[in-house]
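Schema walk-through. Below, the input block comes first and the output block second. Nothing else is stored per chain. Lengths vary across the set, and this one has 255 residues.
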Amino acid sequence: MRVPIIAANWKMHKTVQEAVDYVEQLAGLLAKGNVETVICPPFPLLGFVAEACRQHGLRLGAQNMHWEEAGAFTGEVSPLLLKDLAVDYVIIGHSERRQLFGETDQQVARKVKAAFAYDLTPILCVGETLHQREAEQTLQVIAEQVRIGLEGLDPSQVRRVVVAYEPVWAIGSGLAATGADAQAAAKQIRKTIAEIFSLKAARDVRIQYGGSVKPDNIVDFMQQEEIDGALVGGAGLDAEVFASLINRAQGEVVS
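--- output ---
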C-alpha cells in the first residue's frame, strides 16, 4: 500500500519567523490521516524549521542539492549538509532548475544517485513543456526523463523514489492538468520503470502531480488510481490553504 505524500515547495519565499509560525499553524490545522506531509523551505530556513517539523510529525525537504559532498562549488549545497540538517527529501530536476539554470537530465541523474548515497529520498520531477504537449510528445518526454533520471539505480532504490509529474505549462500558470492527464502520465511513468527495473518497483514508486494544485482540485487528482499525492507550489505558502488541501486529500475538510 503506497502512503500518499503531499509536499509544499516554498521556492524563494518566507523569512525565518514566517517559516516557524507557518509550521506551528499548519500542525494545528491538520486533521488526523495517513498523508505524509513534507515542507520544502529555502536552504537558509531548513535549520530553523527542522525541530518543529520533527515534533509535529512533518517531514523536511530541500529544494535542490549538488551531487558532490564538498568542493569549489560556490552557491551550491552539499547532500552531506542536508543530511546533517535532518532533511528527509530533496526535490531534484524541478522545471525551474532545468529551464532557469540549465540543468540537464544527466545532471539530474547524478543528483538522484547522490541523494541515495546520503540516505536522502529524491523527489524526481518530470514533465513536458507546452510546445512538447502541443506536439503530442508528452509520454515520450516523460519516459526519457524517467529513464535518464533513474539511470544507475538498483530496483530497491527505485522503489523509494518519489516521482513528481509536473507539466511545465501548468506550473504557476493557474492552469492545471486534468485528473485524466495526470493519470495518463503516471501510467507512463510506471510503465517505463517496469520495463527498465521490475513490475514490483513500478508498483511501489509513489507518484505526485504538481502544477497549480489547489484545495478545490486536489480530490480530482487523488482519486486517480496511479496518483499518490501532490507537489504544491503557491497553495503551499499559506498554512490554512495548505491544511485545507491536505485535509481534502485525506477525505476530511476543516470547516
